[in-house]
Amino acid sequence: MSHAESPLPESPTAVDEFSLGELILFAESHELKTLDAGRLARTSPHTVARFLERLAVDDRRVVLRLLNIEEVADVLSEMESDDAAEVLGRMRENRAVQVLEALDPDDSADIFGELKKAEQKRLLGGVDPQTADTVRTLISYPKDSAGGVMTTDVATVSRQMTVRQAVDHIQTLNNRFEHIHYVYVVDDEGKLIGTVSMRDLVISKTDDSIGDIMKSELRGVLDVMMDQEDVALEMAKHNFHALPVVDSGNLLLGMVTDDDIIDIINQEATEDFQKALGAGGDEAIHDPILNSVCRRSPWLLVNLLSAFFAGGVISIFEEQISHLTILAVCMPIVASLGGNAGGQTLAIVIRTLALGGLERKDSKSVLIREAFKAGLNGILVGMISAVAVGFLAGRWDVSIVLFVAMILSMTYAGLAGALIPITLRKMNLDPAQSSQMFLTASTDIVGFAIFLGLGSLFLL
Amino acid sequence: MSHAESPLPESPTAVDEFSLGELILFAESHELKTLDAGRLARTSPHTVARFLERLAVDDRRVVLRLLNIEEVADVLSEMESDDAAEVLGRMRENRAVQVLEALDPDDSADIFGELKKAEQKRLLGGVDPQTADTVRTLISYPKDSAGGVMTTDVATVSRQMTVRQAVDHIQTLNNRFEHIHYVYVVDDEGKLIGTVSMRDLVISKTDDSIGDIMKSELRGVLDVMMDQEDVALEMAKHNFHALPVVDSGNLLLGMVTDDDIIDIINQEATEDFQKALGAGGDEAIHDPILNSVCRRSPWLLVNLLSAFFAGGVISIFEEQISHLTILAVCMPIVASLGGNAGGQTLAIVIRTLALGGLERKDSKSVLIREAFKAGLNGILVGMISAVAVGFLAGRWDVSIVLFVAMILSMTYAGLAGALIPITLRKMNLDPAQSSQMFLTASTDIVGFAIFLGLGSLFLL
Known about the structure:
The structure is a homodimer.
Chain A: H1 20-28, H2 37-42, H3 45-53, H4 57-64, H5 69-78, H6 81-89, H7 93-102, H8 105-113, H9 117-126, H10 129-139, H11 146-149, E1 156-157, H12 163-172, E2 182-186, E3 192-197, H13 198-203, H14 210-213, E4 222-223, H15 228-237, E5 242-246, E6 252-257, H16 258-276, H17 289-316, H18 318-323, H19 326-354, H20 363-393, H21 396-426, H22 435-458
Transmembrane segments (chains A, B): 299-317, 323-350, 371-394, 400-424, 436-459
Organism (chains A, B): Puniceicoccus vermicola
GO molecular function (chains A, B): magnesium ion transmembrane transporter activity; metal ion binding
């Protein structure tokens, strides 16, 4: 090679890795066994994880057999923990134990929590006592709490140490700590008293004491039981790369890093969106068809019940409709606009709640403002509808009723679009849970009632 | 104090800061001027920013006058850049210039980009030439590209340096660099050839050369023009705290850190959710009422047009409805279930697209699978509806028509729920853009046509 005279690369080596598309081609042509193991090992674990999620269990094993323990651990840590547990449950015990030990303790605990009790017991007997202890502690915290997402691989120092002693101490820690950028200062009892960044260590004099260079006014210390959504909000609020996790007695238990938070934020956003539209919060597009169907059907049954109520409202006015069928023609216009005007409000309110932007005392003013916004748009679209119906059907009396009904039903829709998520939250339920279905159920019923009610009063 | 004998704190000091609720009370009682400046300065800039967003422009100035230049810069960097620009535009020129210089270059450029041309020119004349240069370069990149979100405050070293020389060099960099955890290695032309983490510097021997300890096989190097959504995906894929940004010639231009990414991910999730339901992507709940109304009305007008088409479909069957009003009663059941079954699919597909989980070649199988899922649920809810209508109305012929219509319309809804976002993406439009409105428009029209069509064929 012409670069022989240069022992160091002139530019960063492009990583020779598989793309997800290439991997899928291997699966489709049933040639998984011919995958180049070296190139697979260089492929980003994230890509391999996305690939495995699309494969049947047996094919997953074929692929993972090409990787060594460390590489398997990296891939499993990028998969959903239930999928990873399924893979792990089918490995030889010896290999499964090694993978569990190679995983970061937090990932290890997540995956472990998805195993059956019997499997847990069997594998926990195999792993080294220290890992077993850590895993036992971590699975005792709720999966979506700070304790459930933290890592326990934290570098701690005491404030009496000099910078040189601290650096020597960090050097003795094993290579699991490669992503650590903060060192936490604890007292003799393990209580958190300060933080030092790696950068502080780099730029301080070697005989400075840790107590002198540490930051002791700490922002964003997380309680171990804090919900992961709140953890994500704290993390977005403070621009740190990691926040320490303590118990109620300020004992340092671990830390949450912001690459964990990125996954949590994506996951929570997906959950909110999918639940709001009545799908499963953690439903994935490649899930088996029957799983998806079963996740979605309960909400459709709720929807069916509400649709029957809406139908019931219409049936009260059957007599009027048979005399004036234009009512049946205009009915869905009122319902559709109401549902969508409400949906606009719903989206804003759910996201504002998710990002912690709504104080409880704001509720009243938000309800009024959102009703007002939707009502103003009701005047606009109501006016256009009225003119259109007047010209198309030649019934200006129907126009006037439609105009009034649209303003009223859209005002109601704005109110309901704010009220539903805010009420769900007050009841400590997820504000996003199928809000759109509750919303359109109520806007249908109210819209039909207002329009047909006004129609039967003034038009017949 | 009894702790006099202990020069160092025993536990981390709780930060004495205002909560957002407390600040709002001051605003509501018009006592902003009595705010304790010291406590305000200790309050998290994020909280102060959320507070300012709720205030009128004059009140914002009253609050910001209590803070020094650095603190004002911290608060502005946490605000939406258009709001921050408005605040900056009303400061005395001298103060505005100082704030611009104190801001991180990426924030500075974001805010600058929102100023009017004349204001830009005026202020740019005031700031020091180096900052002015950086800002000019940064605003030349699209706001939502890697170049638009990166910071140019990057610590670079050459590979010939020893660890000690590198550390000495980093110590000379100003304190803007406090959050840096990686050092980039560049050649004489400024091209990126490797990375070194602060941890590597800490644990290496001081006379090791940077060339020996650097990582030269680089994953996740970002092109300066890469879209911020893709940047966020790359960041989620690699568990690094920062990724370097280069131009097409591999020249190092800056880096993107994952605390920037957290904001981007939150922002993109909000945009997708709000746009999907027809609200403004960056609409906020405390925006002035008329702004919100104007953002939402165009989509409601589109919705109105489609609702008139749905009404038009119904009007074709007016004759039949007047003879058999139960058609009008059941109509909204078909439409409502179709809309919601489609919404479930829509949510899954939009989120999967957003997280990069859908390859283009998946499209066909996704369309078929989603139609099938919705169709299966159509059989379930169709059956229940049919039985209920049969018993309630005693018309089993209507039941059968309803059953068939629900299966067909929900199958269509599943198809449409996948087709709409996938098509929008193929057209290089935002898959989330008001998808729910397009969806319910089409499910209404198709649902009414199928149900009323079958009804008029078989029931009359």
